[in-house]
Amino acid sequence: MLNNVVHLSAKRSDDPQQDITQARLVETLMTMNPDYIVVGESKGEETMQAVNAANTGHAVATTLHTQSAELTYLRLMSLCKMRYPNMDDGFLLRQVQQAFPIVAYLDCTEDHKRRVMEITEAVRQPDGSVKYMTLYEYVLQKNIRHGSEIEVQGYFRKVYAPSEALRKLVLRKGMTEAWIEKIFGKEF
Length: 188
Hints:
Elements: H1 22-29, E1 36-39, H2 46-55, E2 59-62, H3 69-80, H4 89-99, E3 102-108, E4 114-124, E5 130-146, E6 149-158, H5 164-172, H6 177-184
Parallel strand pairs: 1-2
Antiparallel strand pairs: 3-4, 4-5, 5-6
Organism: bioreactor metagenome
Pfam family, one: T2SSE
Family: Belongs to the GSP E family.
């Protein structure tokens, strides 16, 4: 197996024209025909470049701090506004939802471990509105104290099936029917 991973890092310079920003790195990456682009943490102007990359067919993953799966879309939009403050909010929100149709929301549970608490899909409705559909959620059953340690017990519950648009997207990107059935179930 050949490792084709390229790690790029942002770097500040005494001359602002020579700064290598995350936004500049993502923009440059799009010309390299990567299989995947991972932005370690979106916290500024690079977010708009990540949205652009995703909306031009690149597979993009990023992390950011937010308070819920649904609020992730508004947070992404506000980060994009750092680069384009005058862009129309409605248009920008649609771009963000299209770029990242699925959000995995993690939170810190009482045992101080980060857990995936919810996986949500932004589903465009026929009237153009978007409905946020929780695909999976972590159900916290109980916290058990063992001296100074806490054990969190819970399980993942499937809430809704992914949309037909998502099914078509993952098939187009190379996921097989067998994998789709394994992950999402036969009804998908």
